[in-house]
From TrEMBL:
InterPro entries: TrmB-like (IPR051797), Tscrpt_reg_TrmB_N (IPR002831), WH-like_DNA-bd_sf (IPR036388), WH_DNA-bd_sf (IPR036390). Residues 8-66 form the Transcription regulator TrmB N-terminal domain. It comes from Streptosporangium amethystogenes subsp. fukuiense. CDD domains: PLDc_like_TrmB_middle. This is TrmB family transcriptional regulator.
Amino acid sequence: MQDVVEQLQRLGMSGYEAKAYVTLVGAGKPLNGYEVAKRSGVPRSMVYATLGKLVAKSAAYELRGADDTVDYLPLPPRSLLERMRREFDDSIESLEVSLPVIVASPRAHLIHSLKGSEALLARAEDVVAEARTDLFLSIWPEEMERLSPLVGRAVERGVETAVVHFGSARKPVGGFYEHRFPSPCATAEEQEGQAGQAGQDHRLLVVTGDRRETLVGGFSGGTVWGVYTEDPAVVAMAVQYVRQDIALQIIADRIGHENMRELCAGDPELRRFLTGHGCATALLHAAGMPGAPDSTPDGRLL
């Protein structure tokens, strides 16, 4: 019942209205105000005003008896949900026309921070859901599990999607490339051992939609950070980051991973720039966030 009440609140009912409506639906018979208050927890001083609002919204109806008593009957849930759907769609269609008219042109492309995993992933969902031409993602299984349904819908509506995924996926979607070279976070264990942080995850998330907006986030143990921007330069760099990573995976597949490992092992510069790719440790360190190792084993910040 509490979940239904919360969902109705999200669709515009007050808490009292939602509780009263759910009580009427669950009763299976008309109820008077006293009975609604007793069963729903709505205060008796508020129950008649609450029922009056439901009647005004046509979410409930009054049944007047011969002795002028009043009982209340709910609008059937199927009818209520269909009405809400129509009203929601009408509002969206209206806002699609009117809202852009009042939007002022930004004086600058700002970058704003996102705090916590929920805020970060919710904003990532927005970027994926709003994409209409292309999507670029650099992502780990933990985050892909949540974003995968929306990425699948983007593919269905014709969005060109490129996903570099750190590890295998149960159900790959879009233009999927498994990141296998170099081994994801190849030096993470060494870094964690030096910093006394063994067992912590270090992951980087990049989501770019329509080459117009981008989100970059990092996960390091219990630390989560993220930024979102429509700055064209940052968006272009994020797209290029994903494109070049995909190109590296294709090259490694073409010439063989063992050959690539031998090449990198014999070239210190290649090894320096490829180890730890996709990890959030360097960006965490640069942002001054806790939980990031100070350096790589050779003393350089990745």
